[in-house]
Structure formats: C-alpha cells, structure tokens
Amino acid sequence: MVAQLQGNVQVFIAPHRNLYTDIIAQGLRVAGQGTQVLLVQFFQTGISQGLGNPRQLVENLQWLRCEAERDISKDGIDLTDTEKSAVLELWHYAKKIIESAGAGLVILDEANLLVLRSLITEEELLEVLKMRSPKVNIIVTGSSMPTSVADYADQVTHRRN
C-alpha cells in the first residue's frame, strides 16, 4: 500500500502584523508553476475589495481582502456586524476552497485574529486544517497562534524583529 501524500501546513508567527515578502514570493512561485493560489487577508481592507472584486496578481493567484469602510486590522477595535459578516464571508469562501481543492496553496493571513476576535473557535480553525483536501497546502500567519494549530503544523516559523 502506498500512503497518499498530504499537503503541508505551515505556520508563520511574527511580532509584526504584515505579510512577509517570502510568503508572497512562495505564492507567486507556486502560481507561476501553474497551481491555483488563494491569498486571503481577513483583516486588511481595500477599496472595492471582497469576494465580489478579487485581485489577480498573476494568472493563478487570487488575492482577497475584506470589504470594509475602515481599517479593521488595528488591535482593540470592535467590529461592526457588517464587518464581521465581511470577514466571515471570506472565511467561508476559504473553507470551501480548502475542502474542495479549489487551490493548491491557500494563504490565510492573520487567521489567529479570527479566533482572538471570537469570530470562529480554535477548534474550527484546526478542523479546517485537518479536513483539507490532500492536494492543498496551507500557510497560516499571525502575531500569535493557538497552540493546537501550531502543534498540528508541519512547519512552524517564529520570526524575530
């Protein structure tokens, strides 16, 4: 019997809340090789973005940001119901892509904030990682990470200043 290969889960924990160039470079490299890539920035916003207006960096890289009227990435702000809905809309879309292998690489930027802001549970995040299609690799970033997610990951990178 041959064991089926399972995609990797990589966790990047960094003190700075920004998407590092090597993560973008990895997404571009994978997309350039012909594999679909989905990059979701749950708490970064932009004008006319969201599911209705994704950005295409290259042919195979879809980049989604939250559709919100203000910057929701800052610590200590309370999200409105509309903002919560916009973030969760991206989460549900990402889950669907992960489960169906709609992309070979899915980058979930600041997924830890989904848990910290009580939009999803730690268990739900971990379950999505575990139930992913075997063809899907996932990168999860954040300034912190639930222990269960870090323990489950194939690779954990702790960045320093």
TrEMBL record:
Matching InterPro entries: CblAdoTrfase_CobA, P-loop_NTPase
Record's protein name: Cob(I)yrinic acid a,c-diamide adenosyltransferase
